[in-house]
Structure to design on (189 residues):
C-alpha cells in the first residue's frame, strides 16, 4: 500500500474510533459537571445534582434533626423532583437501600475504599444501577425526590460523606461535612 492509502486508512480509523467513542453507552448517562470540582482528601468531587452550582448550596451539616436530638451531618441540595443525581466521585455502588428516614438511598464507596458517599430521598435509581456496579464521576445514578421522611413539597438530595476504614461496612464510617468541599471553601492542609 502506498502513502496515500495508509493516510486514508489512518483517517478512516480515526473517524470510526471518534464515532464509537461518542456513542459508547457509558457516555449516554454521563452529565456534564455543573461546576468546578472540589477536593476532599485525595478525591475530587462534583456537586452531585445536575444544574446546581456553588451558589445553590446551603450548609445544613449542623442543623438540628430529630426534634433537636442530633445534628444533620449531611447537606441538603434542593432541586426539582426528577432532576438527575450525579456520582460526586468515581466508585462502586456498595448498597442500594430503602429506609424509613432516607427513602431510596445509594451508598457508593470510592476506589481507595477511604470514603463512602451517601445519596438519599431519591425518587428512583437510574436504569441499570445495581449493587457492585462501578460508576465514573459525573455518571447519572438517580433522580432527586422526597422519599423517606423528606417533605413531599421540598424535593432534595441529602448528600453525606463518611471517612471509612478498609473494613467498615456500608453503614459505618465517620461523618465529614461535605459543604466546604462542594462549595469550594475547604480548609487547606
Amino acid at each position: 500500500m502506498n502513502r496515500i492509502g495508509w493516510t486514508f486508512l489512518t483517517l478512516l480509523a480515526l473517524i470510526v474510533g471518534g464515532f464509537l467513542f461518542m456513542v459508547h453507552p457509558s457516555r449516554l448517562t454521563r452529565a456534564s459537571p455543573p461546576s468546578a470540582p472540589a477536593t476532599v482528601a485525595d478525591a475530587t468531587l462534583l456537586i452531585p445534582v445536575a444544574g446546581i452550582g456553588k451558589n445553590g448550596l446551603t450548609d445544613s451539616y449542623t442543623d438540628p434533626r430529630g426534634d433537636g436530638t442530633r445534628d444533620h451531618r449531611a447537606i441538603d441540595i434542593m432541586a426539582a423532583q426528577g432532576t438527575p443525581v450525579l456520582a460526586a466521585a468515581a466508585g462502586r455502588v456498595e448498597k442500594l437501600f430503602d429506609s424509613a428516614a432516607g427513602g431510596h438511598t445509594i451508598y457508593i464507596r470510592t476506589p481507595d475504599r477511604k470514603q463512602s458517599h451517601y445519596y438519599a430521598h431519591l425518587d428512583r435509581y437510574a436504569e441499570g444501577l445495581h449493587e457492585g456496579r462501578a460508576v465514573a464521576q459525573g455518571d447519572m445514578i438517580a433522580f432527586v425526590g422526597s422519599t423517606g421522611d423528606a417533605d413531599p413539597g421540598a424535593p432534595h438530595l441529602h448528600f453525606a460523606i463518611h471517612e471509612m476504614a478498609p473494613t467498615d461496612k456500608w453503614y459505618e464510617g465517620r461523618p465529614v461535612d461535605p459543604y466546604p468541599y462542594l462549595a469550594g471553601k475547604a480548609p487547606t492542609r
Remarks:
- The longest helix spans residues 3-23.
